[in-house]
Amino acid sequence: MLCGVSLREGYVEGEKLDTPIITPTTKASEGHDEDISIDEVIKRDIVSSAIWDQLKIYSLESFARGSAMADAQGLILVDTKYEFGLYDGQLTLMDEIHTPDSSRYYIKEGYTDRQSRQEKQIQLSKEFVREWLISKGFQGHEDQLMPEMPDALVWQISERYIDLYERIIGRAFNREVHLNINERIQTNLQEYLS
User: Fold this and answer.
1) pLDDT in tens, 120-138
2) Domain termination site, one of 107, 124, 141
3) How does DSSP classify residue 27?
4) What are the φ/ψ torsions at residue 72 (nearest 5 degrees)?
5) Which of 1, 82, 137, 183 is most buried, by the most CB atoms less than 10 A from its CB?
6) Same domain, 78 and 154
7) Distances (CA, A) of 162 to 146, 155, 157, 179
8) Is the pLDDT of residue 29 over 70?
9) In total, how many domains does the chain have?
10) pLDDT score of 30
């Protein structure tokens, strides 16, 4: 049972679910997001059943589209987080859609062989950053200071994000060097506003 969704017995790590599921979370009063069932979402009146029905459609359609895009680039979109809000009364999907911050991808080539040998899948996500933080004793608690990352790790994170960008988009990442970040932001805002 996961967030109120019943799963069949026998799944192994890395195995594709028979059908995509939605595992809602909501902001807890403190700490990390709180897992919650769909029934509880409605019961607590976090959203109405009409909005939930819309959320479900948008989530499954977005996941199907993201999966197709990933597949075309030799990737498997394993799971992702969609954040929704109401803007002017309209349900709005926002924030880091299908990025390594919100999603986990597997490399499609060799996936079946790795599964048959019960090997860990090759994944592209921010999980390795989380694992590094945990290895340093950081759990994200309010009273903890995040450990300082060595430059080599920061570069490794950047390279992994660029690799995923290039795999998803299907073209090379254009590394622009901007010495004046404020000027870059101002220029981009001016272009957007005009």
Assistant:
1) 998 888 888 888 999 999 9
2) 124
3) -
4) -65, -20
5) 82
6) no
7) 24, 10, 9, 20
8) no
9) 2
10) 64
Alpha-carbon distance of 84 to 93, in angstroms, equals 5
Q: Which residues contact 111 (CB under 8 A, 6 or more apart)?
A: 14, 76, 121
Confidence of residue 36 (pLDDT cuts 50, 70, 90): confident
Final residue of a structural domain among 90, 124, 158: 124
Does the predicted model carry a pTM greater than 0.90? Answer: no
Q: What is the mean pLDDT of residues 161-181?
A: 84
Task: Tokens for 129, please give them.
Answer: 């950053």
Same domain, 119 and 132: no
Is 28's pLDDT higher than 80? no
Q: Which residues contact 117 (CB under 8 A, 6 or more apart)?
A: none
104 and 79 together in one domain:
yes
Q: Are residues 105 and 175 in the same domain?
A: no
